[in-house]
Amino acid sequence: MIKIRDDEFQYLVGYLKGNFGINLTQKRxxxxxxxxxxxxxxxxxxxSDYIKVLQADKTGKELxxxxxxxxxxxxxxxxxxxxxxxxxxxxxxxxEQTVPSRDLRIWCAASSSGEEPYTLAMILHDYFGHxxxxxxxxxxATDISQKVLDMAKQGIYPEESIEKIPEAWKRKYFRKVxxxxxxxxxxxxxxxxxxxxxLMDPIRYKKPYHVxxxxxxxxYFDAPTKAAVVERLYDAxxxxxxxxxxHTESIARPTRFNYIMPSVYQKGV
Length: 269
Ligand SMILES: C[S@@+](CC[C@H](N)C(=O)[O-])C[C@H]1O[C@@H](n2cnc3c(N)ncnc32)[C@H](O)[C@@H]1O
Hints:
Layout: H1 6-20, H2 28-41, H3 47-56, H4 61-70, H5 81-98, E1 103-108, H6 115-128, E2 136-143, H7 146-154, E3 156-157, H8 167-173, E4 174-176, E5 182-184, H9 186-189, E6 192-196, E7 209-214, H10 223-235, E8 237-245, E9 258-261, E10 264-266
Parallel strand pairs: 1-2, 1-7, 2-6, 7-8
Antiparallel strand pairs: 3-5, 4-5, 8-10, 9-10
Helix pairs in contact: 5-6
Bound molecules: S-adenosylmethionine.
């Protein structure tokens, strides 16, 4: 197994932090643990050799392998369920009243393997019901790791992972797959558009978002990076739009967002 040297560690930490916000300054063992075996298996003699290849690789393939390995993609269905409750009971009725154009744009900005955006799609489906055709709904889900986006598109999960999901949803929105596990039904999967997106990049949008879920990703960023992401999200949101962050996260004050309740914010109207 190849061990990372101080200068190599400093380089990779700076590279990941500068380009992707991922702060591994205190995570040397994690970085080495996730990359050392891969480097040895690929026949690299040192991290320096690997870094040269990473720098020269114009295809982005090496970078994706790095990102797939160093990101923490932990997520699960019904994580922080109060948010989903608030979304269905407060946010959707509010948007139904206040968006006369009937086009809703919802963005799940660090969607990992899809559990979070599919939950939002199920809530939307239940909420709009027969009114659905009258509403144009865009549910965008993005992440920096292509590996988790590919898993999300498949929408296949172990059966245990949907234990906390209401029975009615299990019946309506999941089907068993032959090799074991369950798959989100096509009518829900087709509601979610998956894209690779780095939260460090400028946010391009045709029309601003009414709801942004950006949960449990900014914990990996340092304070200035997080503040800059929050500013960009604010600018990309419609007046009255709601921002959800993780329960253990908060937005530094002063902020242009109005505080609604822990980990829920709203852009002023
Ligand atoms: C812990 S998961 C959170 C998933 C889900 N939002 C939740 O709360 O369960 C964090 C995700 O953020 C993604 N991520 C990390 N840095 C990112 C960045 N700069 N831009 C976009 N996504 C990023 C990771 O790939 C990972 O899938």
